[in-house]
Write a structure and sequence with these properties.
The chain contains 6 helices and 22 strands. The chain has helices at 59-67, 71-80, 157-168, 201-209, 214-217, 221-228, and strands at residues 12-22, 47-53, 85-93, 96-103, 110-119, 130-138, 141-149, 185-191, 236-237, 268-274, 294-303, 315-323, 332-336, 340-341, 346-352, 363-368, 379-382, 387-391, 394-399, 409-417, 422-426, 430-433. Strands 3-4-2-1-12-11 form a 6-stranded mixed sheet, with helices on one face. It has a 6-stranded mixed sheet with strand order 5-6-7-8-10-9, covered by helices on one side. Strands 14, 16, 17, 20, 21 and 22 form a 6-stranded mixed sheet that branches.
Amino acid sequence: MGMEPAHRGAVRELRLHLVTWNVGTASPPPDVSSLLQLDSLGATMDMYVIGLQEVNSKITNFLSDLAFDDPWSIFLMTVLSPLGYIKLSSVRMQGLLLLIFVKHVHLPFIRDLHTQFTRTGLYGYWGNKGGVTIRMSLYGHTVCFMNCHLPAHMENTEQRLDDFEKILEMQFEGENIPSALEHDVLFWFGDLNFRIADYGIHFVRESINNKRYNLLWEKDQLNMAKKKEAFLQEFIEGPLHFKPTYKFDLYSDVYDTSEKKRKPAWTDRILWRVKNLCQHAPKGGEFSEEQQTISVTLNNYISHMSYGISDHKPVTGTFGLELKPLVSEPLVTLSPEGEWSAEHDVLINYSAVSEFPSSAWDWIGLFKVTFKHVNDYVTYSWVEDDEISSNKDGKQVYMSAAEIPDVGGEFLLCYYSNNLQSVVGISQPFQIQPNRTLIGKELPQEESSWMQRPDNLESHDEF
């Protein structure tokens, strides 16, 4: 797990894997390796963005999910955290859920995280349709992810477009946060519910059986709308070289055999928009100052036919984000002092850049290397209350031996900024030696700590 800094001026590519799936209130499947491309080269992605629609939203589940993570979030954290990914942020509105996971190394360079949601269904009173959004500054570039569930049925194209326009007009709470369309990159995805117009079901199914998808493209309602609606024309989509992803009989790749016999459609889509329409990095990979310093390349746009828990098949897009880091050094650098052992109190060294807006509510957490999210710490120290020395080169904070796991193991330290509401520094992984006085005795179970816990990023699930 390299912690190499981002070098200012050098172009770097981040690999992003984006999933959209209408899961039809189903529980997670037993295995998502192929969906997340974990069965090819291991954990090669820098970021996973997972947009789900129709997550089970019965009233009881909806209310209980506000207090606890829903089964999908728990499942995906369980899959991804052992591979070195942390849940960066999530936002939920009824059946719409958006989750972002990142490799640890990127945490200090992701700032200004904000979530938002827009209800459009049932006159906006009950969020059964609409959009959930997460935005951030990524190495100094603004990126926005928008997971939408738009109205169903063939005749509702105009309503879908009106709803998407309303979602685009949504404003984030906070000062100086750009609107969705003002971000450097905007990803728009979800169950957009656009259908194939005009052609009858037999022609559509015959074209699909013969893999002549191109015969259907020009009658896809989203493709048609992109030609005439100005606000859609800057959105780009990869070629639809896969079967329409709706509507299937459960646990099969057979289109709807029910009495309704829904006409197949590409309801599940992933599009993106780069501000200023610079889509490709210049040859040689070097940018001049005047040129756009971020570009998006679609590497793969596919459906996953093997998943049958829903009447929709999931769709994934794998992207390369080429960017010139505008932020190249973490705001805080920290490390353990000397060798750590569970037998004695330990020290943490840290230093911050001069412009860092520190707070008395900042804290440094001790995490297992497989931690799931920012509140998944073993213990923590307040940077002011637990400070023991300070000079121009840095500061030292102590951590009590009583709070360190007796079994030892591999850990890392994260500095959490209360003002910025994010992790602004992360250490290299390091070993803590076990408490030798307990070797041979039965080690105690890890106890739940009922001390005051920092109140931070956990409340990203929204009503």
